[in-house]
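Quick one: structure tokens for this chain, please?
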Amino acid sequence: MKYINGVMLDPSRLLERREVYKQLIPLIADYGYNTIFWHFTDDHGCMLKFPSHPELASRNAYTVKEMKAFIALAEKHGLQVIPELECFGHAGYITSKKRYAHLADGAGKAAYGAITPFHKDTKKILSDLIKDCAEIFNSPYIHAGLDEVGFGDNPSSKRYLKKRKKWQAFADHTNWLHQEITKNNKQMMMWGDHIVEYTNMDHGVDSEALDPRIADLISTDIIICDWHYDADVTNQSLAFLKKKKFKAIACPASMAHGSMTHPCKRNLDNIKQYAKVARQKSNTHLVGMMNTVWCPFRYFTGTTLYAMAYAAQLQTGKTERHVSELFLKTTFGIKNKSLAQAFENVHQVMPDLRQHYRLLAANSKELEGWVFKELGPDQKKSLSAAIKIVLAHKDKPKKNKGLYTDIAVSLQILSESINRYEDMQDIIQAGKNIKKELKSNPHEAKKHLRKNVKSLQSIYKAASKHRKLAEQRWHKTRFWDDPKRTGKHKHYRYHDSIMQRLYNHEAFIQKILQENLSLMR
């Protein structure tokens, strides 16, 4: 089989406009990828109108005709499209529908749920969906998901588990899926976190469903997608899969939990280290790498491109040298070494999710701490300098100008939040002091209060301006009527939506301003 150099897109969690994906396809090919993994089903929705079950489709979902046109365009650029059909966990796209609510499963207090695999209705619907995927997608593979599964609460699961352990039941369902996928002349892929000895899942999990003994019960014809998103990736799980006779795909991440707005150093280190691990001579069973780009609600479309280009290079055994220059030339038609260095610097010192919470604080508690003291005394200076260079070149792209605008808008917001971070801390502390001072020295307190209000009005004006700027850019690439944009979707449990974070940050500043104004009366 041809070595897979793949990138995973995640339309299920937030669908981008058709023209965005059309624009990305030639770039993905130019970066050096030969495969798109299409994660189009999840708890958040289903982005395809299945012929057999059109009732599952989310708002703005692709029609079969549109999906085939997308596949044809990808193939024209040398890219196969592998569908990921969630068939166990992450199946809210099915169980959230009233008519299928009886199939919802879970595992007590575990964070992850599932569709019960032991009900006849589950088997019927999954069989239908697998058949549809086999007919629509030309790739020889179907990815069946099977990550982060929690099950056992549904009555049908309880009955089944009277005769089988959970890990055995997991294997039973996996083998049934393998049978169904094989019957449709496709080869099955699945995530490996439930079967490898070393797993990424360390909290809120259904521990009874995580067991390496599963590997001894399932077909070795299944290709295991081994995902690890931290920088300290080892060969442990890949070695385990080789021992158990499985072919494997190594899966790092450009964007995963812990990142917001842009990939950060942790993401690039994860990609670099896993590529290094994958190239070990012992990994003869490795048939490819997949760079996963999760959750578009965390970022603007263009901001993930640098890490995409970076991963495409390293996943094929090339070095980091000249990646930044190649990225600029390929993506924007720009040749500029200083700008290339600035892009590299931005990603090396980009704040992670936790630090973004502080920079775009939604409450006083999130302002506590000292972001740049944590990360090193030179980070603020280095990041600010790199951002300045990137923003100075926003009119230079010869192509894909909108994608550069995504980057510029995101960095403009970040730069503003960096500049006002310490001011916000000072204002909060001053507010506490003013409340005490109003009793002992009201004249002096009012003087300080007016200064606070003036600063807050300036900060609020800037926050409002940048929120509107972000919203305008968002609407050009995403659907304005998608409730997931603002975090109001019933399956939206995350706190890392960039737009929601901007809304909450603006509201927090407004609240502090109103509190200060009320003290002046």
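Residues 339-520 form one domain.
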